[in-house]
Specification:
heterodimer, A: mainly beta, 7-stranded mixed sheet, 4-stranded antiparallel sheet, 11 strands, 0% helix, B: mainly beta, 5-stranded mixed sheet, 48% strand
């Protein structure tokens, strides 16, 4: 257990429905990342927060995806009008540090939320 | 952006030393090398990070030659529980988050 929790662990939804995932990072970590991982591939970056500010978003993140981190604590990732191609493991990670030295600090990953869109 | 190349898979036996090499020919001066381990249905877990020469911690060693165009993760006396996917990442300490790329990793299988 890394100290990062994600809920739910599994989600099955029908195409066109909206889903929301939650991530609770390690409390003293001010950086939070969301990744998506499909079978046989490594995690792909989706978005990054420093405290409550969303500083980066991947081009992979279509306008159906939105993420928030109110008050710089937990974060939510919402997918609207889900598509079958959204089926994947969604991973959240947190790390300490300030400023721009992102590559310096290790990331602590949660167990992920596995989404299946039918 | 330094791209990494790793073997897709490796096999070994319990008690052996396993070395996984990552190639990063266009690594930049400010880039650091980081390795993560991932078990099925879990998130990746940090193993080790280094810049040059050798780094050792309680679970692994990381060897980086002088030209830094490759790096080798060494796992001493592996056990069945070391069966996992291992990712090599190369990123500037000042990289943007989108430049920290995991790639496809090396699937390591340990046999009794």
């Amino acid at each position: 257990d890394t100290g990062v929790s994600q809920n739910p662990r599994h989600k099955i939804t029908k195409r066109g429905q909206n889903v929301t995932f939650r991530c609770d990072p390690i409390s003293e970590h001010n950086r939070l990342y969301w990744y998506r991982q499909t079978l046989g591939q490594g995690p792909e970056f989706l978005t990054y927060f420093q405290n409550e500010a969303q500083l980066e978003k991947s081009r992979l993140l279509s306008d159906r995806f939105s993420a928030e981190r109110p008050k710089g604590s937990f974060s939510t990732l919402e997918i609207q009008r889900t598509e079958q191609g959204d089926s994947a493991m969604y991973l959240c990670a947190s790390s300490p540090g300030q400023g721009t030295n992102l590559g310096r600090y290790e990331q602590y990953f949660g167990p992920g939320t596995r989404l299946t869109v039918t | 952006l330094a791209k990494t190349t790793q073997p897709i898979s490796m096999d070994s036996y319990e008690g052996q030393e396993v070395n996984i090499t990552c190639s990063h020919n266009n690594i930049a001066t400010n880039d650091y090398i980081t390795w993560y381990q991932q078990f099925p249905s879990q998130g990746p877990r940090f193993i080790i990070q280094g810049y040059k020469t050798k780094v050792t911690n309680e679970v692994a060693s990381l060897f980086i030659p002088a030209d830094r165009k490759s790096s080798t993760l060494s796992l001493p006396r592996v056990s069945l529980s070391d069966t996992a996917v291992y990712y090599c990442l190369v990123a500037d300490w000042y990289s943007s988050a989108s430049k920290i790329i995991f790639g496809s990793g090396t699937r390591l299988s340990i046999r009794p």
